Sequence to fold (187 residues):
Amino acid sequence: MQIWLIRHTSVAIGQAYCYGRTDVDLAASFADEAQLVKAKLEPLPPNTVVVSSPAQRCRKLANILGGELTVDDDLWEMNFGQWEGQRWDDVPRNELDAWANDLGGTPPPGGETLTEVSQRVQRAWQRLISLPAETIYCVTHAGVIRVMLSTLFEMPIGKAFSLQVDYGGCSLLSTSSLAPKLRKFNL
Fold:
């Protein structure tokens, strides 16, 4: 089985804002960016299933990719709680530092820890690998992809943010009875 982890395309508010669970709209360049993502994946293999986060920024891209679409709530981006919708520069420095010093155990106020995100992502992974498909397109968020890869490849959870996942980035995993293999990263 091949599983493509695909990050949504650019968002309208840009990278200066914290928007994990905030259902932000896509940038005006969406149509062009979506075609670039589709070109990385074409042609659509037979027996392909598309699984998406519920966020509109993911579902819009998933619908363009084709295939049978399923939405999985466990693929939502990290919940940043009270930081949602704020500029990163406006997040209180002491809160940001406390979170950064213990990503696995300290949540943003009212949000989730990376450990909690990892638990959701592991449930989603189990559902992905149990699907009766040869190819899966999993359209989700940078945080989910980082946590999924760090968990699968036994990286400390706090190192998840060291993985650069670009807008429209596509990473390919292959699975079998052996451990998953990372075939392509952030194309």
Q: What stands out?
A: Helices lie at 30-41, 56-65, 93-101, 114-129, 142-152. The longest helix spans residues 114-129. The domain at 2-184 is CATH 3.40.50.1240 (Rossmann fold).
